[in-house]
Amino acid sequence: MTTIYLTRHGETEENSKRILQGHLPTRLNSTGIKQAHDLKDSLQNIHFDAILSSDLIRSIETAKIIAEPHLQDVICCPLIQERNWGSWSGASIPDIQGKEFPQDVETVDDMFKRAEKFLELVQKEYANQTLLVVGHGLMDRVILACLQGKTIKDIPPFANTEVRILELSQEGTYSCKSLEDTLADN
Fold first, then answer.
1. What's the whole-number mean pLDDT along residues 50-66?
2. Whole-number pLDDT of residue 136
3. Strands (E), the chain
4. φ, ψ for residue 79 (rounded to 5)?
5. pTM, to two decimals
């Protein structure tokens, strides 16, 4: 059984202002730093065989904070980057709602292909291990949608530093539960 603690990075100023970040080099704000430290405290007694992060700075910052008590390096994985919003990067979400996507925005199909490659990588390189994976709200939902054979809209959004725990069997079955449920069971 491979276990993935899948989380979203801490809050950025752009999150708080509802701005599309995509691949922009945004950093955690003070709230995001506190969220990452709170999550670090919640996860400090869980053994992780590896800690993976998107290679975007806000995820790396979050992962490094959480990794402190585990004395592990963060492994960057470009497959779990946030959606590339192209020319919409930096746009206010309310200003673009209902508008047609520009052609330079990454397609949903391409996001699902990245999620499939990521899940294949996990099963090949990290089988039967416990991982912390720090990604992004939309891409985390794509990973879950890919596993469940659903659409992105079928998967509830991730709050900043929310954790969903995925247990993947070698046979391709999975389960998903919240961190709160897991901690309550222990």
1. 98
2. 98
3. 2-8, 50-53, 74-76, 130-135, 163-168, 174-178
4. -60, -25
5. 0.94
